[in-house]
Specification:
By secondary structure, the chain is α+β, with helices and mostly antiparallel strands. It contains 75 helices and 31 strands.
Length: 1901
Amino acid sequence: MAAAAAAAVGGPQPPQSELPASGLAQDKAATAAHLKAALSRPDNRAGAEELQALLERVLSPERSLAAAAGGEEAAAAGGGGPGAAEEEALEWCKCLLAGGGGYDEFCAAVRAYDPAALCGLVWTANFVAYRCRTCGISPCMSLCAECFHQGDHTGHDFNMFRSQAGGACDCGDSNVMRESGFCKRHQIKSNSNIPCVPKDLLMMSEFVLPRFIFCLIQYLREGYNEPADVPSEKDLNRVLQLLEPQISFLEDLTKMGGAMRSVLTQVLTNQQNYKDLTSGLGENACAKKSHEKYLIALKSSGLTYPEDKLVCGLQEPSAGSSTLAVQGFVGATGTLGQVDSSDEEDQDGSQGLGKRKRVKLSSSTKDQSIMDVLKHKSFLEELLFWTIKYEFPQKMVTFLLNMLPDQEYKVAFTKTFVQHYAFIMKTLKKSHESDTMSNRIVHISVQLFSNEELARQVTEECQLLDIMVTVLLYMMESCLIKSELQDEENSLHVVVNCGEALLKNNTYWPLVSDFINILSHQSVAKRFLEDHGLLVTWMNFVSFFQGMNLNKRELNEHVEFESQTYYAAFAAELEACAQPMWGLLSHCKVRETQEYTRNVVRYCLEALQDWFDAINFVDEPAPNQVTFHLPLHRYYAMFLSKAVKCQELDLDSVLPDQEMLMKLMIHPLQIQASLAEIHSNMWVRNGLQIKGQAMTYVQSHFCNSMIDPDIYLLQVCASRLDPDYFISSVFERFKVVDLLTMASQHQNTVLDAEHERSMLEGALTFLVILLSLRLHLGMSDDEILRAEMVAQLCMNDRTHSSLLDLIPENPNPKSGIIPGSYSFESVLSAVADFKAPVFEPGGSMQQGMYTPKAEVWDQEFDPVMVILRTVYRRDVQSAMDRYTAFLKQSGKFPGNPWPPYKKRTPLHPSYKGLMRLLHCKTLHIVLFTLLYKILMDHQNLSEHVLCMVLYLIELGLENSPEEESDEEASVGGPERCHDSWFPGSNLVSNMRHFINYVRVRVPETAPEVKRDSPASTSSDSLGSLQSSRRPRVLQREHSGTAQVFSLVAERRKKFQEIINRSSSEANQVVRPKTSSKWSAPGSAPQLTTAILEIKESILSLLIKLHHKLSGKQNSYYPPWLDDIEILIQPEIPKFSHGDGIAAVERILQKAALQSRMNKRIIEEICRKVTPPVPPKKITAAEKKTLDKEERRQKARERQQKLLAEFASRQKSFMETAMDVDSPETDIPMEITTAEPQVSETVYDCVICGQSGPSSEDRPTGLVVLLQASSVLGQCRDSTEPKKLPITEEEQIYPWDTCAAVHDVRLSLLQRYFKDSSCLLAVSIGWEGGVYVQTCGHTLHIDCHKSYMESLRNDQVLQGFSVDKGEFTCPLCRQFANSVLPCYPGSNVENNLWQRPSNKSVQDLIKDVEELQGRPGAFPVSISSETNLSKEMESVMKDIKNTTQKKYRDYSKTPGSPDNDFLFMYSVARTNLELELIHRGGNLCSGGASTAGKRSCLNQLFHVLALHMRLYSIDSEYNPWRKLTRLIEEMNSQLGNEEQPEVPILYHDVTSLLLIQILMMPQPLHKDHFTCIVKVLFTLLYTQALAALSIKCSEEDRSTWKHMGALKKNTCEAEKSYDVLLSFVISELSKGKLYHEEGNQECAMVNPIAWSPESMEKYLQDFCLPFLRITSLLQHHLFGEDLPSCQEEEEFSVLASCLGLLPTFYQTEHPFISASCLDWSVPAFDIISQWCLEINSFTEQHTEQGKALLIQESRWKLPHLLQLPENYNTIFQYYHRKTCSVCTKVPKDPAVCLVCGTFVCLKGLCCKQQSYCECVLHSQNCGAGTGIFLLINASVIIIIRGHRFCLWGSVYLDAHGEEDRDLRRGKPLYICKERYKVLEQQWISHTFDHINKRWGPHYNGL
């Protein structure tokens, strides 16, 4: 820090160090040693002073600060600038600490005393760590990878994760994890054998470190300038960069272990040291200045320094305001203590808040000192202060955390942290980088607060809870606005504004997460629940969220701007309200905790009462508004539920009076009604976001903190309030009161007709849910889990992880169901079957799924639970469809079933009152009315309504009160009640009660209004719809005299009664209702009253309904008349599944069972002959099904017609069917070889639909995809694939690949022979060869051009690039990029060519030679440019451009024609070889394969031949001559300086074959083909013999030589291999070929003795590849079938197929390959001519001569690398592997699965000319195709040319699921089937066809 020339600074110079200050290292060491000695003396005052002086000089911040601040000129003055000074100071410190020794030795010495009981490794974001739930005590427990792998966690529930905020390893800390999980290093208990630290070792440290830290603090003070605006991050970062070495030095010290940490702790917490050094007193000006800066910084942070009276302007707020604040929020003004302006500026105040001004509260409920006073007493405290000021620089955080293993430090630091808590919040609010800062804060706090012991200590000693709650309250207060709920003008309630940055960006989460963390500790939570003051404050806090994000329904136009604030609102309620609530609830599990619940409930109710008062709520909610946020209601509900379930508390003792219950139920009910409205599209003008809210409200992460408590609260209210009041409230809220009338027409003043039906369905569904849901009414936790799981599985099959995600768990991980806990797995295995992942060829890859067991569908499918839990309405339908399918499949029910009725768990006694809803007259009237309306076919009633009505009746029968006696009803008879609907309230008896007449209010226009005379009536006014069938109407009279039963009036009356009872003020303040339906003056036609004759009871309606549903007269016959047993044993399984008819039967049976009267009445009704049902009346539902049937029938017919038409036109398409991956079933589609008709081949154009031949003027072309491929080059000679390297030792070297071997061969030839000749001797294209495949569809080339034009103008974003000529086949949509012209030709010609002619071999040879020499002999002359030849040229260009230049140019002279020549025949070779590989590497299976179907070799051959014939080979050099003639004068042609030509025995025979054939005019004559093959076979056989002779040992050679020589003159000599072999050996012996350099080598080469059998096998294997390729070629050119055969007879079958074997050849004796030979020239002559060339070459180059003769032709199939079983082995090795280019660990490492190269995905370090490394590698390794495994994501990515796609993963977890991005971090295992599929797609080049989601990569991968 101080410049080296510190001597210039005045000050006493210690006499010893008279040395120049820039003294060398040894001088420093000497000084240090001297000082150490001085300090070790008993009287060390002199030494201490001396040291102080030295430190004063070395560590004085003045020079360096000047340098840092003043920039250049200061730096110039200070010599080396700040950097040099810094280093110098650090050097001094290191020397002094070591006391003269070496610093490294000192470190080692200190480490020896480290009692490493804790790991404490600190990591930052993105580090890979582990969490084991089995071993963790705290849910935040984490382990570093090393500790995790060293411990034993087999079978545990663990996962790997990427740290979000950073963390520290807990290994060894028994407060956080169980000891069984400690790793080997940390299992040993500490202080057992660690020796005591010698005093002198750390003595210097104790002196030096305080100065060092003080210097650091001065530096921080200096660097922080507090201008008017917030200091720019740039300045702060500059200071931090300067301090980097110092902080790193401290960090290194902490890593020295426990001994050094305890010294540091002493230094940091020692108050005396701090006082002495920082008080700013004394003469040192620098220190004074630094102290002033510190005070300014404190003040500007809105903090005060207690002693400093000048600064402290804090007045205590008056006592009055604080008492008011507790009662409620008084006034929206008031000050927030004395906070400095910097905190108050409204950063976002202006943004679109309009008139909604922020509200400040006078909350002085708590001691102001929490917020505003900070006093620092030690280095640690001030260090933390600056850490916060500088917004938590990572280095400082790491240093502070590294110290945590020291227990004493941990406590001190935690207290300091708590002391600064308010300050942290203020800094966080102002920060621009609040995300990063939040992460750093949590990184620290989670280490401190996860430890229960520590949390308890701080709670007791530092008021932790008070501080946290107050800080949270303050934080939220900065963004409050006035609530507009209910009474906009007079509302006193304030809520948070969800549009504020604080909420939108979740800035509050660090504080909330700390709060949740400490509440998870029982001891802390108890303190909280006992402290009434805290509870009051907390309820205050919660009420800020009550009613936030209010939605107002738009009635006129669509809202202009859809705000997305609802995300913020839901997140805030979940995190800030619900999670702390779950935390508290987890500690209220037992009876002893009753008191806590009472406290919470009490303050919750008080807060609710305050809220109702503040929003001026009386009895009616304001219309058209809804808020989904009622956290106070939910707190209340959840604590009630817990009280009853776990604490055996009496429910009534914690419930308020009736009036409060009425108020409590209003808002939750409003939400339920609004949900129905939203789903009925009544809120469409509010935009999509309102749907989003409705979905989020029921979504799995929110439902148990939102909808579940709401429904529970409504259930509690319903069980305690008057049932008639409750039911009528429900229908009024759902706005369907007017619909509930017997009349066929009605008016609804509050609802449009189109919404009526869905709102009625909503109301009934809500009642069903309310009455049948038992989540909080008596179900145990395991039953709940089971019900949730069944509901989710019924909607869809689910993967394990999505199921974990969808099952709502208590958000606090310490309570309830932990995902992955024992009960989850056991319940899952009980209710579901696992479906292993399947692979449809060409389809998508499935993951492992769980599907419900049959018995679950049978007994546990619960539609109510499904409806409650569906986010999308379609999921309910999906569940019903699956249920229907199950019933059909298992034969239980064939038709369309209704949702089954499920028996419920018994109710907890406290909630018995809920069932009174089912037995109240109001509900019965509604049910009766609806049944009647359905029967009468009134409109707007659906099957769903009927279903719910029957469900409610059934629920009522299941839960009937016991006391009903049969006699009671018959006493007075039905006459007793003229004017009321039903006699009692019991459903069982009401069901049989006949209702004769009903008085209804109807519009005057209604059909009911006729005149007649009255009788006894019941009256109704419940709302209704037009109908075609009219009941008889008896009399009309004006409304007024008759008493009208009105739901709403009843409800009002009840409400008034209750209010009068409970409140003394009798002047009810009912504000005039705008929403009132009754004062709608002059709206619509006048209502009049009519009286309807009904004469029905619920039972009779049900029976008639049965007739109606079944469509038959008298269809219901009471079953018990036949079998009385039915009533005795009622549970009949046949009834549990079925449609409406079954439901009606079930209900009637239950009614009969419960009462003899009912039974009698049912029988009576059935005896009466019911009036006939009008014939044409069909229920809406049935009409629907009939319509559907009819429509389906018509559709089917239409489809048949279309299909027939399609089939005739697109026969070719049907044949190819393009099922890419199932070769077995395909019929080969031969494009050119048709039956021998006399016509030309006819092609269908898939664009214009016309058929016709391909002509010169209008050529037809095949849709083809050209791609460069290096698959062939990856073949190796071993069948075992290489393994992916997972250690440094394993490496993959590519020199044994096919491509490498061919490369070496070509370059060897080019070294010694003439270039042009070399390029004819081999094939290229092993790497970057062009593969051509087609989908088999043809089109006119001109049609194609216009198609491409239209694609070019199409603005839709396609997955391909039209400019590069890419398109999709117009018929099958397969990807393609070129069109291959079809060669015009008739089949007649073809047939003529194929007739065998009887020419001799000699003639044929001449023919071949002549034909090759005639360049113009081609049907299409090039000179006349036709369309066809143009197209042929353009496609040839395409083929060339498909691959890169380096894969085309092998010649030494660039651009030579030989290059093109070589390239063209190699394209043919590549396609043949690849087809062979697709067939599995041999032709044993015969027939055509998929590859054959996709191959277009015939057309390709025409194009290539056309271009090859442009280059005529000089007849001198044509290899054909060398093969078929004896040349006399050998040496004359060789000029001395010229390089020789390649000897014919070094030629690649297959290449020769292709050259010969492509040089011939097309189409080729079959005889000529066979002739060429025969000639070439002789050469091949000779090559085989030569290679064999080299492999033999010297003795073997001489034996064979003599043996064969004996038989040389027999007649069959030319066809006997031993003769030929001996001849070859004797010829080659003339040269130096067999000369060995040393004999040791030959012994090694081949120790095996060659038997005749093994030799024959060698020769056959040598020749087979040629025969295979030739047979394939023959198959394509002449359309001959390939025979299938066994592997051992493949040679002979192919030979005879090719015409090499004479037809009369008998196969009894063992087959001998030599018998296929057919020499055109005397064998021995031609062989000796060939051998002569070799001998002349081997004169100079024996070794190379030998190498070139042995050609390795037996390549095995290509494979991708073999991957390890467990993904972790790959991950651990590669995710830390450094990049070879920049030696940093890449952010996205990837590895190539073809060659194992490690690459950086998107890494900029490895970019070359704008190509990133993966793209570059894909070009070099796969000629544009790359397959990469992304290490950090476990996903495979495919690069194909300029596009890429995510392929999926080949690693799945134990549940058969992928884990993309390793989010879940579960162990992954290789899925062999998937890997096989990947490899298959690579080999068959079908990535483009099978994978659908491609995108451009712009070279950025």
